[in-house]
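Before relying on records like the one below, remember that each one covers exactly one chain. Contacts with other chains, cofactors or solvent are not represented anywhere in the record.
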Amino acid sequence: MPAAFNAALAFAKGDNRRGASDLLKRQAVADLLSGTKMQTEAARALTWKAANSLENGLGNYNARRELALAAKIYCSDACTKVVTDTINLVGKYDDPSLLLASADVPPDLHTTQTGRSRVC
């Protein structure tokens, strides 16, 4: 998630698409990036809290494990949403392979719309 956010932020700061100002100064882009940053930090904090609770929390193991399982589900969903949103942001303005290259995915899984394999 941080890699996708950082790549989208660098893109939004450095490109203006022939407009008067950078993409980051457009409200829709700034709102999307601030939302993805908040989701990333929320997932990070929840993961930290769940890990701390699992190791040091009160009660039996199964009760402590419940928070860790909930954190896993939330973080999985948040990660999918953040990466999809940032790919859509960059994809509207440029080639989304900018973000795909930063993901931990083998290059042969990155495909174009024609289905051909593409090395990013």
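The radius of gyration is 18 Å.
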